[in-house]
Amino acid sequence: MCARTRSREQSQEWDSAYGDALWETLRVLCGHLLENSPEDVFATASHEHIEVVGPVVRDWHDSLTPWPEEKMTAELVRPSRRLMRLLSAETHLPTLKEFGVMERALGDVAQLYTDRAGRWAAEHKKEGPATERP
Fold first, then answer.
1. Does the predicted model carry a pTM greater than 0.70?
2. Beta bridge partners of 19
């Protein structure tokens, strides 16, 4: 049940009220499961921000499948909650909205990828020496 509900929640648009309701349901359910079945609670994706170079990184990058332009554009225009969590560790919707976290994160995406296991990866735009970040 948790996996199906989480899958449904992450496919919702990032500011979806239905997605919020599913998120809260999962939060409460996971709190109860924590004592009895922790493997169900902690079987989630981890986020890695890689800023290194070298042959291993190049091999890993070469193994990724770039998203088609139309799919990437559609996801960036109406981002899902799954993309929101990939681009930002912040999950508190009012914070995301008030401080423009998603707008900045979406504007920083150069390319989206899928790995062989179906996980998503994001490549960020390169910053030049004259680029200023807020």
1. no
2. none
